[in-house]
Design brief:
single chain; about 400 residues; alpha+beta; Phosphorylase Kinase, domain 1; 2 domains; about 40% helix; disordered N terminus; binds adenosine monophosphate
Length: about 400
């Protein structure tokens, strides 16, 4: 077996472009698997051959997506529990089954560069030609929004404790020139929930990018409610793009309303581009002026004028300058009644989209069974492409069918 060559590009972290490295190497056969240990972000990866089940006992299924399944697992040597994410590789270009190797490699490479208490950790990585297995930190506390929706009341000060952790994680990644580009409630989880101070974990780096000086990055990805105007306008993206999403998340958290939500996705996008939002008194009657100022400094159309993550952390709403400011935050509460309604609608939409995605996958699989593989995958693609040409669908990311 070659010296784990195929997987070298994956684990090199920031050193060079993973896809370049992979191009020079050949991948092991399906039944040959390599593993890399979690390394310090700057270290070069070392590989040793191994099979995931030799090192980890696979347990129950935790979830699934069109990439494959996620299972709880236990490391045999230490007894520690993790989540094993099995990601199927796309068999041919253009297929909708599985993910692009390059895309997963980019996600892995980014995760390997990040080591922060509020960011999901990648512990181990196994890779073969057909599949990658990411051994991830096990997240047991569910989504932050679900946790909050179960509460009777929540003061702004309590909401800020969560927001501060999100900002710390985001400031850290931006400091390392990484932008997430898909910040939304589904990607903000709690490590555990039945503990005094639940810890935030930012997950899903599937759209994340390493930002390089002098390199312009543009993309039409994201989830309509949370994307910044520069995404819709196909203008250069930056870490400021994440800060817009944090502005939207904060607005929702305080009021249970989504600032740009229209009747349709197209209307939502047009509201975003126009910068059409307001603090309606009936939803924001309990909100402090400081909180509104915080949001206003994030929902700024011009990315260069938006507050950065580091600046947000010292905004007086997050870090009060006086006792009076601190007291105001503890007296103001978030609009729980409306927030619960928002969250229920959000969950309903997620389930609906999940069922639709499953139906589409079943149709694909049924069709695929009737033809040769190549023909089938192409055939199925054109079926999907009809949907994909819809302008709004273009803006949805691979998992947005579930988002
Ligand atoms: P994903 O598409 O990565 O969000 O994974 C699909 C589902 O698997 C999630 O909705 C979770 O239920 C579960 N899952 C993924 N990663 C983890 C993790 N690190 N810990 C616990 N459950 C996870």
């Amino acid at each position: 077996m070659a010296e784990g060559g195929g997987a070298m590009g994956l684990a090199n972290g920031g050193a060079g472009s993973p896809s370049d490295t992979v191009k020079e190497t050949s991948w092991p056969e399906d039944d040959e698997v390599f593993v890399t240990e979690r390394l310090s972000p700057t270290a070069m990866a070392t590989f040793r051959p191994g099979n995931v089940e030799e090192l980890y006992e696979l347990l129950e299924k935790l979830g699934s997506g069109h990439f494959g399944v996620v299972k709880r697992c236990r490391k045999r040597s230490s007894g520690t529990f993790y989540a094993a994410k099995f990601v199927k590789m796309r068999k041919c270009k253009g297929s909708r089954l599985g993910l692009d190797r390059e895309q997963v490699e980019r996600e892995v490479s980014i995760l390997q560069q990040l080591e922060h208490p509020n960011i999901l950790r990648l512990h181990d990585l196994f890779a073969s030609k057909a599949e990658m297995v990411l051994i991830l930190e096990l997240i047991c506390g569910g989504e932050l929004f679900d946790f909050i929706a179960e509460k009777e009341t929540l003061t702004e000060a309590e909401a800020i404790e969560f927001l501060q952790q999100i900002l710390q994680g985001v400031a850290y990644m931006h400091g390392r020139h990484v932008a997430h580009f898909d910040l939304k409630p589904e990607n903000i989880m709690l490590l555990e929930k039945d503990v005094p101070n639940p810890k935030i974990k930012i997950i899903d780096f599937g759209l994340a990018q390493k930002l390089e000086d002098g390199v312009t990055f543009k993309s039409l990805c994201g989830t309509p409610q949370y994307i910044a105007p520069e995404v819709i306008n196909y203008e250069p993206l930056s870490s400021a793009t994440d800060m817009w999403s944090i502005g939207v998340i904060t607005y929702i958290l305080l009021s249970g309303m989504s600032p740009f939500q229209g009747e349709t996705d197209a209307e939502t996008l047009s509201n975003i581009v126009a910068g059409n939002y307001e603090f309606e008194e009936k939803f924001f009657s309990e909100t402090t002026d400081m909180a509104k100022d915080f949001i206003r400094q994030l929902l700024v159309k011009e990315p260069g004028s938006r507050m950065s993550a580091a600046e947000s952390l010292v905004h007086p709403w997050i870090k009060p300058l006086s006792r009076k400011q601190a007291t105001n935050r503890s007296r103001s509460s978030i609009n729980m009644k409306n927030f619960r309604k928002f969250n229920a609608r959000r969950k309903w939409k997620l389930s609906y989209n999940m069922v639709s995605a499953c139906n589409r996958l079943c149709r694909l699989k049924l069709l695929c069974g009737q033809r040769t593989e190549d023909e089938t995958l192409r055939g199925c693609e054109s079926d999907q492409e009809d949907e994909a040409t819809h302008p709004v669908t273009l803006l949805r990311r691979r998992r947005s069918s579930c988002s």
